[in-house]
Amino acid sequence: MNVVTVKINGSEYNLKGEEREEYLHRVASYVDKRIIDMLKKNSRLNVSDASVLAALNIVDEKFKADNIIETLKKEAEQASNAEKALQTQVNDLKRHINNLEEYNIELQNKLESTKSGEYIKEIEDENKALREELELLKETSKKYLKEKNDLKAENKELKFQVQSSKYKIMDLQNRLIENQIDLAKIKKKDNPLLNIK
């Protein structure tokens, strides 16, 4: 466990946490800045009121970040479901292409084995139509594969955003805890009845 001494609004506090020292200093610095901003915006505020307002703003940020994370999770889930559906379509198209290729081979074999000119023309026409359908299916398959890859990239980005938002929430939660500690210390300092031993 790391223990660091930080300054918040001119007072020193010892912070303990599993996080790195740099992180704990960042949390304290953020809380300090928010309290000082509150005091600058309204010079009539005392430190206790400024701390409460800073805490309210930090919690507001946390709630908004929570909402963003929920939205990103839903978008990531939708992208994942769309990717699965596209993969199923791609697999179906591949099977259909394989069936058409087998049928095409069968028709070519029949074409080679027959000697009737009229039958050959009929088979050639059918074979040509099948080749065109095969090419169309291949193009469709490429399109679905591209959409699948695009969705994968989008899903990856959404997962990254969800992870970033989680870290932001953790940061905000730590700031809130530190702010609550600061508020309790300030209340104790400002209330002479609490200092009686």
From TrEMBL:
PANTHER family named among the record's database cross-references: CELL DIVISION PROTEIN ZAPA
Biological-process GO terms, alphabetical: division septum assembly; FtsZ-dependent cytokinesis; septin ring assembly
Gene behind this protein: zapA
Subunit structure: Homodimer. Interacts with FtsZ.
Compartments in which it is found: Cytoplasm
SUPFAM superfamilies listed in its UniProt record: Cell division protein ZapA-like
Pfam family, one: ZapA
UniProt protein name: Cell division protein ZapA
Coiled coil: 65-189
Function comment: Activator of cell division through the inhibition of FtsZ GTPase activity, therefore promoting FtsZ assembly into bundles of protofilaments necessary for the formation of the division Z ring. It is recruited early at mid-cell but it is not essential for cell division.
Keywords recorded for this protein, A-Z: Cell cycle, Cell division, Coiled coil, Cytoplasm, Septation
Organism domain of life: Bacteria
Species in which this protein is naturally found: Clostridium homopropionicum DSM 5847
UniProt GO cellular component terms: cell division site; cell septum; cytosol
